[in-house]
Here is the input.
Amino acid sequence: MNTDVIDPGHLAGRDTESCLTKADALRDQLGSSLHDNLVAALYEEAAAIAEHATTQHGLRWSGFDQKIDRIVTSRWLGFPIMLALLTFVFWLTIKGANYPSAMIGDALFWLHDRLEAGMKAVGAPWWLTGFLVHGVYRGLAWVVAVMLPPMLIFFPIFTILEDLGYLPRVAFNLDRLFKSVGAHGKQSLTMAMGFGCNAAGVIACRVIDSPRERLIAIITNNFAPCNGRWPTLIMLASLFVAAALPPAYSALAAAGSVVGVTLFGALVMFAVSWGLSRTALKGEASTFTLELPPYRKPQILKTLYTSIIDRTLLVLWRAVVMAAPAGGLCWLLANLTFEGRSLMEIFSGWLNPFGHALGLDGVILLAYIVAIPANEIVVPTILMAYMSKGMMVELDSMAELKQVFVTHGWTPMTAVCLMLFSLLHNPCSTTIMTIFKETRSAKWTIVASLLPLIIAVIVCFAVASLWRMAAGH
Amino acid sequence: MGACGGCGSKCGKQRGVIRLGVDASRLDYLVALAGNPNTGKSTIFNALTGLKQHTGNWPGKTVTRAEGMFEHQRKRFKLIDLPGTYSLLSTTVDEEIARDFLLFGQPDVTIVVLDATCLERNLNLALQVVEITDRVVVCLNLMDEAQRKGICINDRRLSVDLGVPVVPCAARHKVGLDELVRTTHEIASGALTAHPRHVAANHGTMEAVDELVPMIQSMMPGMPSVRWVAMRLLEGDKRIRQALQTGELLQLAAALASRKVQQPQTLAQAKLVPA
Amino acid sequence: MDTLDDTERTLASLTPGEQGVVQGLSCEGLTRRRFLDLGLVPGTLVEVALRSPLGDPTAYLIRGSTIALRKDEANKISIRKAV
Ligand SMILES: Nc1nc2c(ncn2[C@@H]2O[C@H](COP(=O)(O)OP(=O)(O)OP(=O)(O)O)[C@@H](O)[C@H]2O)c(=O)[nH]1
Ligand SMILES: [Mg+2]
Here is the structure.
């Protein structure tokens, strides 16, 4: 074959046009059934080939999957099983995280003291030790100690459920609810991905073909608490909710409250989806087809291994790039003074009235501003701010951690409002960037960023006001 | 898998593959992974490249295209993990991405990953892919699951019927992947050529196709998918129409035709020069 | 499956365990193409597998895989029931 004779430019014009005209004429003759015929022919051929190549031993279809499906999607058990599984995952996370948490905490703060001593030994000036050890290192250590342990348990379990094939069943069970708010049933899959990371959840929204339904899913993904928020929710639930109960029930109560918060997030997600599909994103429901794959045996050891390595690396990496600088910043804010007051005091003083109205305080709001790049540094920032003046307390138990909060005026109301704020507030900067990349629209990116913040403020304000009224303040 | 006979001798861990991750410093062949959702494409991708593309037991896990490299017999292969689709005819966004890559991305080989437990549905896509390109290897994945369900597949018969090589695999257990890579290499280098079976639609449609084919053939000699282009034009596919009008399709045909006469090595080098 | 019922009805009218054979689709555009891609061409045997806890959607066995469709969609698929 001689390729020299092909000259696209020369041939393009007339031949192309006559070819297209011919095609159009033929299409008119054939009528609209062309596509149907083609697909029918393809399937007929596929069936014949498959039949010719396949022999079936025993039963045509293993009924095992269907038996399980009858249970996990049954009218009476479908929803209770979903709730029970979610509760179980959190219960295991809370129970299991205590041990690594204590170990990691001990190790990191042992190193903290050595570093401090080392700096002293080499005669480093106080501000250098302060910035590097009390700022950068502490920020890093707090994030790792508070965030890593729950993640190491939550994610492997979640991945195992995913590998098992349970997620499409959840989508199957919940689709009716999504339909009633004008959204797509696969939105529950994107929310599930959002539990890992909202940026990943936003990208996962590509499984939804209809632009309208996809946009709804993108905007509401934030209401699925992510990687950076679970540990905050779990910690607050353990310290303030579970502590009120006898120890035997405390883990279950904590798990129950995290489930409660998650469900509230789902409720807000449905409400916002409903609102959007009634107003700015009005439109027809698109075709919903969802394949329920066979259940597969998860590769438990491999999953444990890879997700533990992955999560550890992820948390450590983010601790280095996000928490370490934030730690340094916190130290500077706490130690740079203006007219005798630290910048931290000044800024949080400004934010205090607003924070108070939301059931929070100025330091918490300041921490949220510092934490725009990464949700996981909120609690560590709050701790560093509270403890910036006094010496570092040895925090080897949850009780002491709680003591720090309580001495700064926290009540169960503060914990509840903070959980709600953490659940609802604006997405982190990575997610915002991803939303922009996926939607290519500044308008929708702004909506997706500010709408949650506004909702968070309204909800926290309402809860705090009602709580105070009920308590008679 | 002995019961099926198909892969008894082919079972074994990978030996001839060096995983290269994302190191795309030099490449000889471009290989695309296509198939229905949830058939194990990303699992194969990970096994061959050593990368960690997310896998999960639900259709639609992969939504973005991933690229990775591996080496086999001193040849470097770039592997593209495409999102899964049931078809290439509906022109939804992901189907168009997959189809455009198979056509305009000019992969040297397309591996179509089939779910052995659900052959009929998966063959529907395979039959569409072989209309677009004849450089196809079928990977019959999930053989372990098929065996457990008592489904036995005669892969030789399947290969004869389809006119393309078929390699039974169980990607999760790294079974059959060596053979898959070897066959892919053979198709890429031209040592093995496939002669895919084409589906005949009903009589009227085929007559119309037959009328168009000579016109298209004279415009783009050497194009492997003339029938497919004719079919697309008959259906009024806007993307293909446009590609014909802008000359994109003609350039593609020229590139594909020249690939056939050149040595694969020189072509691969030529491909590295920016167009 | 032995014989087919005489009256044509929609897929949505079947209950779990029942089977039907596709006769045609009463929708156009992307939805129609989607259905065809799933293998819902005339002559295809479909069995109702599962009903979601809230009554909608329903999962069907279509050419070897289990696929969930909403009621509105199943209503666009006309079948004849296998008796
Ligand atoms: N038993 C068995 N399971 C497999 C095999 N290959 C893949 N799997 C499992 O099948 C599921 C889907 O695998 P993926 O690699 O994510 O499939 P995919 O084709 O990339 O799917 P999409 O990205 O959704 O198109 C995963 O749970 C895998 O562990 C196999 O050979 N045997
Ligand atoms: Mg994939």
Summary: The radius of gyration of chain A is 28 Å. The first helix of chain A runs from residue 8 to 30. The longest strand of chain A covers residues 289-292.
